[in-house]
Design a protein that fits this description.
alpha/beta; Rossmann fold; three-stranded mixed sheet; 12 helices; 15 strands; signal; glycoprotein
Length: about 475
């Protein structure tokens, strides 16, 4: 990892490396919206003149058509709900993602995708600080889709008069959402990717990935070598496949496949840091930004042994008999694939051990994570990746303020001795602002080496490099 020490100054959840405009809280109180897709739709034929349509992009998977939106006076081309993997349903449940087959015709990439299956948080009904994190699109196991936002003036098609070497290299920022590996979605209203793309001259992408047991059930040691049954880390494999799709198709959107920056908050930050270790991620990205979450967090990974214990508890709670794992594990998996998603989603919480012990997390599986992260770090087994580390201002502030704040703080006090962690986050941000001067914005950081003095390009959130 890069030796540069970087501190964020003014941080918002998604806009940490973006622009500090607009914060729209979710106001949805059910799991469906009219703009949500269930399956992608395509036209039956390929239009002969599609090259003349600026909203149609020719990817390696097929043609996709997005829509245009004016954001802060600038046009952004938006492509949402692009499938990058086959729906992980039926026999594909609890398995690594399978790349999507190519399609014929033009895929309509104009609707926000489903959110991966999860439980809604309803501990404090009507509390905006909780509701804003709940999925605002359909909840479904059919959820492996990605989204892309492109500033119109940076599209390759508008620079056809230039050679490939002369065309502008547009950096790509890939967002990975948080949620303790148990929840989250790329479609939340507070993730303002269109504003980032418009104001910071970058391409922004995000993906959905499986969470909870659907994304991290680990029982692979009960199967023969090479088996793909419940290998664990399916959610990380989802992220990897999405990032690979983005890299493979970067040029079609006018992006530079060699200038991909991963960034994420909480479990998203933890995911980014694990990608920096995994040999399966080599060459897929250049930089990583970790926001209030790293592999050092006690909730960010677990041993294979612990993951298997949790898996057995879930199997028994779903009436699938974990004792059969030593006799015929395939029978157990057949049973688990027959259990409805709601039952799995609810029963998985029976192994919950407190705020620092989520029942699902990245697992030391010997493949995606060959060894535990601490050991890999000590041994120097990580990618030579430039990295930003930061803590989001007001992290958990919504949980510890407003109506019934006292009751919520008491709840936190009873679950973890680190209940005042939000204070330390605030102090870190305050100290950073007091120690460093404001310096270059997002696009500079995404485009140039962190040790070089970047040039200002817009009114993006200032970042500071500390030497």
């Amino acid at each position: 990892m890069a030796t540069s020490k970087v501190v964020f100054t003014k941080l918002l959840i998604f806009s940490l490396v973006s622009c500090a405009w607009g914060r729209s809280w979710a106001n949805h109180h059910d799991t469906t919206t009219s703009t949500t897709q269930t399956t992608p739709t395509t036209t039956t034929t390929t239009p002969k003149n599609f090259h003349n349509d600026p909203l149609i992009v020719e990817t390696k998977s097929g043609l996709i058509k997005g829509y245009a939106k004016t954001v802060m006076g600038r046009e952004v081309h938006i492509f949402t709900g692009i499938p990058f993997a086959k729906p992980p349903l039926g026999p594909l449940r609890f398995r690594k993602p399978v790349p999507i087959d190519s399609w014929h015709g033009v895929l309509e990439a104009t609707s926000m995708p489903n959110s991966c299956y999860q439980e809604r948080y309803e501990y404090f009904p009507g509390f905006e600080g909780e509701e804003m994190w709940n999925p605002n699109t359909n909840i479904s196991e059919d959820c492996l889709y990605l989204n892309i936002w492109v500033p119109q003036h940076l599209r390759v098609r508008h620079h056809q008069d230039k050679s490939l070497t002369e065309r502008p290299k547009v950096p790509i920022l890939v967002w990975i959402y948080g949620g303790g590996y148990m929840s989250g979605t790329a479609t939340l209203d507070l993730y303002k990717a269109d504003i980032m793309a418009s104001s910071c001259d970058v391409i922004v992408a995000s993906m959905q990935y499986r969470v909870g047991a659907f994304g991290f059930l680990y029982l692979n040691k009960h199967f023969s070598s090479g088996s793909e049954e419940a290998p664990g880390n399916m959610g990380l494999w989802d992220q990897q496949l999405a990032i690979r799709w983005i890299k493979d198709n970067a040029r079609a959107f006018g992006g530079d496949p060699e200038l991909i920056t991963l960034f994420g908050e909480s479990a998203g930050g933890g995911s980014v840091s694990l990608h920096m270790l995994s040999p399966e991620m080599k060459g897929l990205f250049k930089r990583g930004i970790l926001q209030s979450g790293t592999l050092n967090a006690p909730w960010s990974w677990m041993t294979g042994e612990r993951a298997q214990e949790i898996g057995k508890i879930l199997i028994d709670d779903c009436n699938c008999n974990s004792s059969l794992l030593v006799v015929d594990p395939s029978l157990v998996m057949d049973c688990m694939r027959g259990v409805d998603a709601k039952t799995i989603s609810v029963q998985q919480w029976n192994s919950y051990t407190g705020i620092l012990g989520f029942p699902s997390a990245p697992t030391v599986d010997g493949i995606f994570l060959p060894k535990d992260p601490d050991t890999m770090m000590k041994e120097g087994n990580f990618h030579n990746t430039e990295v930003l580390l930061g803590s989001n201002q007001d992290e958990e502030f919504e949980v510890t303020s407003g109506p019934r704040a006292h009751a919520r703080r008491r709840l936190v006090d009873t679950t973890t001795p680190r209940s005042n962690i939000y204070y330390s986050h605030y102090r870190l941000a305050h100290v950073a602002r007091s120690l460093v001067d404001t310096s270059p914005p997002t696009r500079a950081v995404a485009t140039f080496p962190l040790t070089s003095p970047p040039r200002p390009t817009s009114d993006c959130v200032p970042l500071a490099v500390v030497t």
